[in-house]
Design a protein that fits this description.
The chain is α+β, with helices and mostly antiparallel strands and 139 residues long. The chain has one domain: 2,3-Dihydroxybiphenyl 1,2-Dioxygenase, domain 1 (Roll). It contains three helices and eight strands, in the order βαβββαβαβββ. It has helices at residues 15-24, 67-75, 89-98, and strands spanning 3-11, 29-36, 43-50, 53-60, 78-86, 103-110, 116-120, 130-134. Strands 2-3-4-1-5-8-7-6 form an eight-stranded mixed beta sheet. A hairpin with a 5-residue loop joins strand 6 (103-110) and strand 7 (116-120). The chain is globular. InterPro entries: Glyas_Bleomycin-R_OHBP_Dase (IPR029068), MeMalonyl-CoA_epimerase (IPR017515), MMCE/EMCE_epimerase (IPR051785), VOC_core (IPR037523). Residues 4-135 form the VOC domain. One of its GO terms (biological process) is L-methylmalonyl-CoA metabolic process.
């Protein structure tokens, strides 16, 4: 199955400072800026576009339960995950299962932009957080 880079997620603490940096230094355009209080997300998210390439800025909204807060505590700020667009998430999940790669089932969700996503189990990716996603509403 073909996979293409969809976006990179970056764990940060100061949302406005980072939006300003991306806009004023990198020439990015702010596509969306929202807050998700969904369990397992609990983050403020800004989607930045630089000439068609996307970066998601992720700031924790709850320092106790947010996975972004946990990530920053364990690893510091910086690249949190790499997301790959797959043509069909259901088919990609079957392919992963056939190859013995586990996912984090509780991470399966559809975000406000209609992107279905799931994270692969970092134990099977040598610690790298990898997201698979598709956009079924846009096909």
């Amino acid at each position: 199955m073909k996979k293409t880079l969809d976006h990179i997620g970056v764990a940060i603490r100061d949302m406005q400072m980072n939006i300003d940096f991306y806009e004023n230094v990198l020439g990015a355009t702010l596509i969306d800026h929202y807050r998700s209080d969904a369990k397992g997300v609990e983050s403020e998210i800004a989607i930045m576009d630089i000439d068609g390439d996307r970066t998601e800025l992720l700031a924790p909204t709850n320092n106790t339960t947010s996975p972004i807060a946990r990530f920053i505590k364990q690893n510091g700020k910086g690249v949190h995950h790499v997301a790959y667009h797959v043509g069909d998430l259901d088919e990609a999940l079957k392919e992963l299962k056939e190859k013995g790669v586990r996912t984090l089932p509780d991470s399966l969700r559809t975000n406000k932009h209609g992107r279905r996503l799931i994270y692969l189990n970092p134990a099977d990716t040598d610690g790298t957080i990898i997201e698979y996603c598709d956009y079924p509403e846009s096909t």
